[in-house]
Amino acid sequence: MRTNIIMLGLSLLSMTAFAQKDQVKNAEDAIDDGNYAEAKAQLKIAEQNLGELNDKWTENFYFYKGKAYMGSGNSSAADLKIAAEAFQKAAEMGNEDATESLMALKNNLIQSAIDDQNKEDFASAAEKLYTSYELSKQDTIYLYYAANNLVQAQDYTKAVEYLEMLNEMDYDGSGKEFVAVNAETGEVEVFGSKEQRDLMVKTDEYKEPSVRKIPSKKGDIAQLIARIYISQKDYDKAIAAMDKAKATNPEDMSLLKAEANMYYQMGEKDKARTLLEELAEKDPNDADTMNNIGLMYAEIGDNEKAVEFYNKALAIDEEMNNARINKVAAILAKEREIIDEMNGLGMSKADSERYEELDADRKELYKEVVPILEKAIEIEPNNTDAIKTAMNIYSNLGNQEKVEEMKAKLNQ
Length: 412
Known about the structure:
mainly alpha; Serine Threonine Protein Phosphatase 5, Tetratricopeptide repeat; three-stranded antiparallel sheet; 3 strands; elongated
């Protein structure tokens, strides 16, 4: 009797294994028919007694599970994560098709996230990018992109969680990328490797290969964290996050910029300007820093100091048109005081003489900014603000020929 019981038990085990094989085969047939819901249902039943299958059928189970959850390409991030994990297990068991499918899934996941970004569905993009990171933890850039999409989606709680994770990792994100110009479109395109870029250049479809430096993202990360905490009026956390980032990277210029911006957002503008001036001493070749210091001096009405820093910015980068336009604004700021005095004068002879003096002073200001504006328009022929300002100044100077020239530029 005892022997019969054992035989019966073995028979039941064999029947279970056969049933599971049938379910895996049914899942395969459902996938071939595009019926992914049925495939999932069959696999869920088979999974209950997965340990009864031999290695080959277990490998098949995970492979088909991956295909079922990957679906036709429009699966959710949660399903894609399940698919990736299944493909990973099948690949580890020696399934080469699973290895290829896993690579395809990762590519599809990233492309799907890009499509979501283009549709401004930032929450979905963030979920898919985070899933990409979870599938391949060495690809930390996807965690960074996920955090940025969460900021766009205004999910600041989760965004700051991801950003703090990056801070904990001391994530830098700097490096280099290999680029070339598409011969047909003229657009600069990025390639996955130097070898890939060089191969495409040999086809004559691409030209002008070069290497582009990717700057550190530590400053951006610290600034985003600070921005979120500032928006929540949690200034202590904002300062603590910035101090922590600086402690590990004291010479990172991007962090010093981010710190100055943080204090500016907090309303501590003197502190922000002091930090920028310290940064300018450490890095005297940063035109953006010089321009920003100029803006801060202009904001407190010290236009002479503002012009000094705009000039420094232009000495570093002659093409920096925003510094040039800012310089024009700082010079013309003196006009307000002149006009106010002119409007307050009476009709006496002395007042009339003073009026003429002030009018001459005002025209000297105009003459001072004319060459600056002309240079700005030369660099940016479509800068309508610069053209309109120049047109008004030429009109006040009585230069009708130049007024007509500026009108023609606007019409173009």
